[in-house]
Design a protein that fits this description.
Its EC number is 6.5.1.2. Keywords: DNA damage, DNA repair, DNA replication, Ligase, Magnesium, Manganese, Metal-binding, NAD, Zinc. It holds the Pfam family BRCT. The protein is an alpha+beta fold. The protein has 5 domains: about 50 residues, Orthogonal Bundle (Helix Hairpins), CATH 1.10.287.610; about 240 residues, DNA ligase/mRNA capping enzyme (D-amino Acid Aminotransferase, Chain A, domain 1), CATH 3.30.470.30; about 100 residues, OB fold (Dihydrolipoamide Acetyltransferase, E2P); about 150 residues, DNA polymerase, domain 1 (Orthogonal Bundle); about 80 residues, BRCT domain (Rossmann fold, 3-Layer(aba) Sandwich). Helix content is about 35%, strand content about 20%. It has 25 helices and 22 strands. Strands 12, 13, 14, 15, 16, 17 and 18 form a 7-stranded antiparallel sheet that branches. Strands 2-11-10-3-9 form a 5-stranded mixed sheet. Bound molecules: nicotinamide-adenine-dinucleotide and zinc ion. Zinc ion binds next to loops.
């Protein structure tokens, strides 16, 4: 290949890999698999070795992949936060072992650890208390995310035991358990929020949120795996891990001390089979030379230590046949293509469907009917098609074309600017949208109607008994028709009708969430209800008024306005109002407006289960109290929630300022 072509290939790789790094670290929405990413990085690295004079100083082979963001304070790392060399091959591991033995002889041990699939975090402790938490960032400096990290229960705010130095840094991996991921992600989908592809992305996205209250609602965990002290306290990494366990840190119980590379390989083989039984994702294992003296001898490259390496498991892949593509219409009208596959065994389960995400994905794969396709189950929960084995394509097979019209109701599909998903706009008459809306309305997080499930909704709809949410409240008039339904005894009918009747008492915020207005999730519904107090002021709110509210952005404001513009929605709301549903926020109104706090000053700190800090501020101010900006002798009360900063608490104690809970605050108000 002529030199200029090699240079072109290298430049193209640099450009592409930098883009993938950005998608992965900053957006937390990668578009290629880790394996493909690593193969491209390896190709670039090989070319750079052969043609060092062509190497771009900005090459992704020379630096850690992340970036710092502008949303957080930037903090420089005392010790750089590096990446790890990685490989997918056992042969490479043996060569790694050879290199080490050449350098330090054969008297050494490895610590084998699981490679947790999350994001790395540096924690600094001073006098036994968590002082700061910083992301890896670009390796030299990272984002200060202390407030968010304090919400993680597994990270001690205050240390146990003794023997820890006054000042030290400890590093580990913040991650989310698979069960929490699945639960929260399906909530996101129901609320029309973009789902995360896997627990790693969910954890990374969460740590970068601006609202610590929201972070606290998403359970994160953390395993610690590196201790950094100014003066070495222990001789080995293994001893450090055991010590930090005593101080209260969460250290993985599966770590293993191995005497040689064969034992390491055994560990790798064991976890290659058993990793699916863990409650969290790992993407490989990490081996580290145990002795610190030997680590020092081996040193570092620009990007990673020479005394450690990661062995990564390749996502499991299988080949099968694409039988057909079907299109599912969701409650919000989003039309999702699903691949129906000839059943195949993959990562321990029988797979017969794979997600195709959207129309772009179908054209990217250039799918044809009957294609032989490769499916992969990587970090993602739902398997996906990675590529087509085009050699096996039958001649004359038909290309898969994404439809223009809704498969359920025949309406022309629309695609909003900047979005990849197609929607059916017929939200009041497209069958799956109707039943989906009613199912959402009765769900536990919305109106929590007992005695009625998703299947009942489908049946009632098919029988023509319900077509809109408001029809639920007319069901009691249709007792005869209900009795004629199969498998629907008198008891279940009366349970259902009672459940419906009781739902009339559900608070305004639940009704608002239940209506299923696009982008109005649970949290936003709560904020809106607290701010606008009733449906009439919400309906008449202007765009500017809407976006001035905390947490309402342009997208949500536009969606609210569009919703109330539709006469069919207004008609529904009138019917629900007549039926007796709550369209006004109560309780907090009662607490508002008094003068019990007059002349008193407050500071609110930490995270509260039942209130946002804004709500507490409003509560204090409307009862005559004042919020101060810093703790001083002028402060009367510190209202403390969970995970507040230890320095604040200390200062308040020093000044003898009473620390109260939100419940105590409420009782002061309603005295
Ligand atoms: N798909 C994409 O678009 C894309 C883009 C960029 C990066 N990536 C993936 O990310 C990798 C690069 O990320 P990276 O630099 O974070 O490297 P890495 O994930 O391969 O390895 C280093 C990281 O492993 C983590 N880790 C987990 N368990 C550990 C343990 N027990 N001990 C020490 N560290 C542990 C730490 O966070 C550490 O920073 C690439 O190899 C690629 O697979 C993918
Ligand atoms: Zn439709």
């Amino acid at each position: 290949m002529p030199l200029f072509e090699i240079k072109e290939r290298m430049d193209a790789l640099v450009k592409e890999l930098n883009q993938h790094n950005y998608n992965y670290y900053v957006l937390a929405q990668p578009t290629i698999s880790d394996y493909d990413f690593d193969k491209k990085l390896e190709e670039l690295s090989e070319l750079e070795k052969q043609y060092p004079e062509l190497q771009d100083p900005d090459s992704p082979t020379q630096k850690v992949g992340g970036e710092i963001t502008k949303e957080f304070k930037t903090v420089k790392h005392k010790w750089p936060m590096l990446s790890l060399g990685n490989t997918y091959s056992e042969q490479d591991l043996r060569e790694f072992d050879e290199r080490i033995r050449k350098s330090i002889g054969s008297d050494f041990e490895y610590v084998c650890e699981l490679k947790f699939d999350g994001l790395s975090m540096s924690l600094t402790y001073e006098d036994g208390k968590l002082l700061r938490a910083v992301t890896r960032g670009d390796g030299t400096q990272g984002d200060d995310v202390t407030t968010n990290i304090r919400t993680i229960k597994r990270i001690p705010g205050k240390l146990k035991g003794e023997g820890y130095p006054d000042n030290f840094e400890i590093r580990g991996e913040v991650f989310m358990h698979r069960a929490a991921f699945e639960r929260l992600n399906s909530e996101r989908m129901k609320n029309d929020e973009v789902p995360y592809a896997n627990p790693r992305n969910f954890a990374a996205g969460t740590v970068k949120l601006q609202d610590s209250g929201e972070v606290a609602r998403r359970p994160l965990d953390c395993f610690l795996y590196f201790l950094y002290t100014d003066r070495r306290l222990y001789r080995t990494h293994w001893d450090s891990l055991n010590a930090v366990k005593e101080w209260g840190f969460h250290v993985c119980e599966h770590n293993k001390l191995c005497r040689n590379i064969d034992e390491v390989l055994q560990f790798i083989h064991y976890w290659s089979e058993n990793r699916f039984n863990l409650s969290y994702d790992i993407d490989g294992i990490v081996l580290k030379v145990n002795s610190y003296a030997q680590q020092d001898e081996l040193g570092f490259t620009a990007k990673s230590p020479r005394w450690a390496i990661a062995y990564k498991y390749k996502a499991e892949e299988a080949e099968t046949i694409l039988e057909s593509v079907s299109y599912q219409v969701g409650r919000t009208g989003a039309v999702t293509p699903v691949a129906n596959l000839k059943p195949v065994l993959l990562a321990g389960t029988r797979v017969k469907r794979a997600t195709l995400h959207n129309a772009n994905e179908i054209s990217r794969l250039d799918l044809h009917e009957g294609d032989a396709v490769f499916v992969e189950k990587g970090g993602e929960i739902i398997p996906k098609i990675t590529s087509v084995n085009t050699i096996k394509r039958q001649s004359g097979s038909k290309k898969i074309i994404y439809p223009d019209i809704c498969p359920e109701c025949g309406s022309n599909l629309i695609r909003r600017e900047g979005e990849a998903v197609h929607y059916c706009p017929n939200d009041e008459a497209c069958p799956p949208q109707i039943t989906g809306k009613i199912q959402h309305f009765i769900s536990r997080k919305a109106m929590n109607i007992e005695g009625m499930g998703s299947e009942t909704v489908e049946t009632l709809y098919r029988k023509g008994l319900i077509e809109h949410i408001s029809d639920l409240y007319l069901l009691h008039e249709k007792a005869d028709a209900l009795k004629e339904m199969d498998r629907f005894g008198e008891k279940s009918i009366s349970n259902m009708l009672e459940g419906i009747e009781r739902s009339k008492q559900m608070p305004f915020e639940k009704v608002l969430f239940g209506l299923g207005i696009r982008y109005i999730g649970e949290t936003v519904a709560r904020k809106i209800a607290a701010y606008f107090k009733n449906i009439d002021s919400l309906m008449s709110a202007t765009y500017d008024e809407l976006i001035s509210v905390d947490e309402i952005g342009e997208r949500i404001a536009e969606s609210i306005i569009a919703y109330f513009k539709d006469p069919r929605h207004l008609q529904q709301i009138e019917k629900l109002r007549t039926a007796g549903l709550q369209f006004e926020a109560e309780e907090k109104v009662v607490l508002l407006a008094g003068n019990n706090l007059e002349g008193k000053t407050f500071i609110i700190s930490g995270v509260f289960e039942n209130f946002s800090r804004d709500e507490l501020t409003a509560l204090i101010e409307s009862n005559g109290g004042k919020i101060l900006s810093s703790i001083s002798g002028k402060l009367n009360y510190l209202v403390a929630g969970d995970n507040m900063g230890p320095s604040k608490l200390e200062k308040a104690k020093k000044l003898n300022i009473p620390v109260i809970t939100d419940t105590e605050l409420l009782s002061m108000i309603s005295k």
